[in-house]
Amino acid sequence: MSYIQFDNVIRRYSHNIAVDQISFGIERGEVFGLLGPNGAGKSTTIKMLAGLLKPNSGEIFIDGISVIKNPIEAKKKLGLVPQDIAIYTNLSAIENVTFFGSLYGLKGSELKEKVQEALSFTGLTEKAKEKPKKFSGGMKRRLNIACALVHNPEIIIMDEPTVGIDPQSRNHILNSIMELNNRGTTVIYTSHYMEEVEAICNRIGIIDEGRLIALGSKQQLKQKASTKEKILVEAHDYNDRALRNIKELPGVIHVDSKEGLIEIIAEEPQERLQDIIFMLVKDEGKLKNISIKEINLENVFLELTGRNLRD
Ligand SMILES: Nc1ncnc2c1ncn2[C@@H]1O[C@H](COP(=O)(O)OP(=O)(O)OP(=O)(O)O)[C@@H](O)[C@H]1O
Q: How far, in Å, CA of 92 to CA of 81, rounded?
């Protein structure tokens, strides 16, 4: 059994199946990413792990402890940063972190020390006495993280922590995840941002419509695609007919075009370049650049499901 183990877990909301019989394990010390589009079942999975929702069937274990039978013991091991920020806007930052620390049973000088550590870790020491009412979205999120890690949990779960925040806070959060992991914390990170998951996670589960459709390191996941590379064309003035002609070229699997950038997934991409350039130029297209790049997890998702990760 893995350090964290999901066994045949099912969760419904009335007739809608949100998590459909998933089984997987997470090892101690991993940064594990749960990647999937909106509504895929990420939050439901995370809430069940954190003991906030009960599965309809199946079992979840943390370090051999059943989250369902022994939720209080299991919960001691983890800190949750929920998708919806959960802090008290009328309390100062330090009062918020102190409150959460005391909920986890910290007291006296240990509580004070851990609160200072959590505020410093999230870059909020100078804002400690201010009320989060005036904080930016990113600062509120960082305070939420401080509240979740004040008791030094073995596992930290972050549910889409970078949605709708400024780039500075986003980088701060991503760096702090790496630092937490260097200290030995197991991190579970959900996101629909493929770039973030690729950048920070050792292992990734791809979830779609409640099912875990792929699991592995990013290199293992990329092996699931039928081609390892894609063609990127920067062009302007091309028309839909040129795109249709490219789609019909032999070996071409998928063509996507957005704001002057055409992405083409094709078998043996080097062999397709001449024909692609020909089709574009023939139909008035002006070519700026053409290159071959390694595919990413977005491309893997598209090939597995026929849909884009972000529509
Ligand atoms: N409280 C609820 N009541 C009814 N249906 C729900 C509830 N919460 C989630 N769902 C449904 O369950 C499915 C999975 O939702 P979930 O929030 O777990 O997905 P998600 O991958 O976290 O998506 P998002 O990124 O949008 O939060 C969706 O179809 C959603 O509409």
A: 18
